[in-house]
Specification:
Length: about 300
């Protein structure tokens, strides 16, 4: 059997970290592509030279030429600018829209059967841009946000309880912005609802910290945004597709009536497998949860309104 082929567009912080996690997990051969000459080549070779030490087999290629991405099974788009302190993800829209459009055109030309996972911010709208530019069916174009936002919430809950990070499960819905919706009612520690273990006011603090989780890192780093947890989150999605794992993961999926929304990308729980987004799961929400989701959807919608015609 031939190895799978993963292309990562953008060899910056998130792209290179994705390559690192994907190589370590032996998910396939990896192509790192960027507009800057030398950076993808250098990072790819450096990472491949870790293979004898770490014991993974993957050919990792760095390039500036889309021909090298030909026939990729999965393409991760991280190309674009990241925010700095004081900026919102939405401030990246104009610049990143052009980048995601041009990248997607090239990706589609060489890998017409690929699954595209978008990472570039503002995430929900950039995923929409990739969908419209690619002409791919929506199950093959989705965005990474909820896995990361949920991982942050899981981290805070585990630290609060002094328990294993692995034992906390949850999901965050909505757009990847400050009004995302962490689902407290669906958050468990070893199968026990956290509302039975943690006082409500402490949970509220963790929900707020999750919503601002990206900015917390930006404010520390000053020069850019998070990349370790984002890279790991992307690779969990890549693995779910390439191994047809049928994971239930929160992803930015294209909604066509689910939860009452049409023609919009929003974070929802979905089954992710060999068919990409195989099914969006519609769970029951309280009126308060639905109102919070509506607010988040409205923010995404407002940003879509200022997009150039696609
Ligand atoms: N969805 C999410 O949860 C997350 C999204 N992000 C977003 O991911 C994006 C990348 O972040 P970083 O890797 O930290 O930024 P970075 O600045 O380290 O890397 C971005 C790379 O994209 C490249 N690039 C720019 N235009 C390109 C083009 N047309 N074709 C190919 N490559 C191009 C740049 O040369 C650079 O190497 C940002 O928009 C950031 O906001 C970051 C973390 C989490
Ligand atoms: O905050 C940012 O700009 C990057 C990002 O999306 C995150 O880390 O959640």
């Amino acid at each position: 059997m031939k190895r799978k082929k993963i292309t990562i567009v953008g060899a910056g912080n998130v792209g290179a970290t994705c390559a690192h996690w994907a190589a370590a997990k032996e998910l396939g051969d990896i192509v790192l592509i960027d507009v800057v000459e030398g950076i993808p080549q250098g990072k790819a070779l450096d990472l491949m030279e870790a293979a004898p030490v770490e014991g993974f087999d993957a050919i990792i290629t760095g390039t500036n030429n889309y021909e090298d991405t030909k026939d990729s099974d999965v393409v991760v788009i991280t190309a674009g600018i990241a925010r700095k302190p004081g900026m919102s993800r939405d401030d990246l829209l104009a610049t990143n829209c052009k980048i995601v459009q041009s990248v997607t055109e090239q990706v589609v030309k060489y890998s017409p059967n690929a699954y595209i996972i978008v990472v570039t911010n503002p995430l929900d709208v950039m995923t929409y841009v990739a969908l419209k530019t690619s002409g791919f069916p929506p199950n093959r174009v989705f965005g990474m946000s909820g896995v990361l936002d949920s991982a942050r919430f899981r981290t805070f809950v585990a630290l609060e309880l002094g328990i294993s990070f692995e034992d906390v499960t949850t999901f965050v819905m909505g757009g990847h912005g400050d009004d995302m919706v962490p689902l407290v009612r669906y958050t468990y520690a070893g199968g026990i609802p956290i509302e039975k273990l943690i006082p409500a006011e402490r949970i509220a603090v963790m929900v707020e910290r999750t919503r601002k989780g990206g900015a917390e890192i930006v404010n520390y780093l000053k020069t850019g945004s998070a990349f370790y947890a984002p890279g790991a989150s992307v690779v969990q999605m890549v693995e779910a597709v390439l191994k047809d794992k049928k994971r239930i993961l929160p992803v930015a999926a294209y909604l066509q009536g689910e939860y009452g929304y049409h023609d919009i990308y929003l974070g929802v729980p979905a089954i992710i497998g060999g068919g990409g987004v195989e099914k969006v799961l519609e769970i029951e929400l309280t009126p308060e949860e639905k109102a919070a989701l509506d607010k988040s959807a409205n923010s995404v919608r407002k940003l879509m309104e200022v997009l150039p015609q696609l």
